[in-house]
Amino acid sequence: MSEISAKKAKRPLWIAVVGLLLGAVALWGASQLVWFAEFRDGGVRGTVLYTEIGSQRAIALIPLALLALAGTAGLIATGGWPRRVLGVVLAVAGVAAVWIGVAGGSFTGFADGLPVTQMVGARGLAILGGILVAAGGLAAVKGAGRMPRLGAKYSAPSAKRAAKDPETELWEALSEGEDPTATR
User: Which of 46, 49, 33 is nearest to 129 (CA)?
Assistant: First the structure.
């Protein structure tokens, strides 16, 4: 394989890996931002601002980010059909993250004094993270046959593996308790 074609074969893998890593970071970041805020009666304290961050309001964000992170390692380590199956799982996880970002969200009609920018940004970040994870999964499905596998350059072709060194055969025969010179 020439150097240029080897680089082209690695490109889909790195696109998927970078997409998954950025998606995982975006999902984790979205889980740390405010997703819900409202003013509540605090009794003696008066009206207080009540907020919930993404990990409280949309609890699947952190597990989806961890799945994307683990999927990155899985894409690097596997090849062929396992990589395609993992790509489908990651694409579905990305769609789920987009759904979490869109479902139940309001993008207008906020009261004055609420952290609107953070709430809208958190949902947008979750949507972006979901898109990146889904794109990384789909890139893995599409390029699974062309992407290099972990340790593939160290695996010998089967013809080379079958041919043994005559000297090695002699030592193996001695190790098994046979006399290698008896047949010669």
Answer: 33
DSSP H helical ranges for the chain = 3-31, 54-57, 61-77, 81-102, 116-143, 158-162, 166-175
The residue with greater pLDDT, 55 or 36, is: 55
Unique residue bearing structure tokens 């769609």: 95
Return the number of other C-beta atoms located less than 10 Å from residue 45's C-beta: 8
pTM: predicted TM-score of the whole model, two decimal places: 0.72
The span from the CA of 181 to the CA of 130, in Å, is 67
On the question of pLDDT at 152 being above 90, the answer is: no
Q: How far is the C-alpha of 40 from the C-alpha of 22, rounded, in Å?
A: 36
Closest Cα partner for 106 from 36, 50, 54?
Answer: 36
Name 180's Cβ contacts closer than 8 Å, sequence gap at least 6: 169, 170, 173, 174
Across 136-140, 142-146, 147-151, the highest mean pLDDT is recorded for 136-140
More confident residue, 158 or 69: 69
145 secondary structure, DSSP code: T
